């Protein structure tokens, strides 16, 4: 059976949506999957809308645009409102409950609601709710391996920001173990 994950991550600019998508894409590359990563953001770099389509597959990918995600990560209410109805039946939705207080009901999707921002703030990991949710995505979907994701974190942290490596790993672990 073919392996395939169509992932859509969405939120405000500055929440690390594109970084979270890049982590998943790099992990897919490390596992030698077919991968696409397509970022999209509004005119404001911080505070505007941002979303990112990531496709992971062991078969060729026809389009990099995710119109019907199997996995949706929403870091704010407007993003959930925009994309929730587009999630494929059987899909999984991951939300930061602190920023997404109103999750509609659907019988054909599974919703994982975590206080990601609050959890990170309390753990001294401010700004890493995105990575915490990536951890939860891996726990619930196994779209890539933990080892590949850790290697992707290492690859994605530039040398001048090496001090962020362990906090990112810690945020991932909290999400994965929640």
Class based on secondary structure composition and strand pairing: alpha/beta
Can you list the strand order of the major beta sheet? 2-3-1-4-5-6
Broad shape: globular
User: β content, as a range?
Assistant: 15-25%
Distance between the termini: 29 Å
State Rg.
15 Å
- Mind describing the biggest β-sheet? 6 strands, mixed
The CATH architecture name reads 3-Layer(aba) Sandwich
Tally of structural domains: 1
Number of helical stretches of at least 4 residues: 6
Q: Please estimate the helix content.
A: 25-40%
DSSP, total strands: 6
Q: Using the coordinates shown, work out and report the CATH topology.
A: Pyruvate-ferredoxin Oxidoreductase, domain 3
Helix and strand element order? EHEEEHEEHHHH
- Uncertain segments are none
Within CATH, the superfamily carries the name Pyruvate-ferredoxin oxidoreductase, PFOR, domain III
- Main CATH class: Alpha Beta
Nearest-integer average pLDDT: 94
Feature tags:
178 residues; alpha/beta; Pyruvate-ferredoxin Oxidoreductase, domain 3; 6-stranded mixed beta sheet; 36% helix; globular
Short précis:
The protein is built from six helices and six strands; from the N terminus they run E-H-E-E-E-H-E-E-H-H-H-H. With 178 residues, the protein is of the alpha/beta class. Strand 4, helix 2 and strand 5 form a beta-alpha-beta unit.
Description of the molecule:
By secondary structure, the chain is of the alpha/beta class. The chain has a single domain (4-176), classed as Pyruvate-ferredoxin oxidoreductase, PFOR, domain III (Pyruvate-ferredoxin Oxidoreductase, domain 3, 3-Layer(aba) Sandwich), CATH 3.40.920. 36% of the residues lie in helices and 22% in strands. The protein is built from six helices and six strands. It has helices at residues 17-30, 77-83, 116-122, 129-141, 146-156, 165-176, and strands at residues 4-12, 34-41, 49-57, 71-74, 92-96, 110-114. Strands 2-3-1-4-5-6 form a six-stranded mixed sheet, with helices on both faces. Strand 2 (34-41) and strand 3 (49-57) form a beta hairpin. The mean pLDDT is 94.
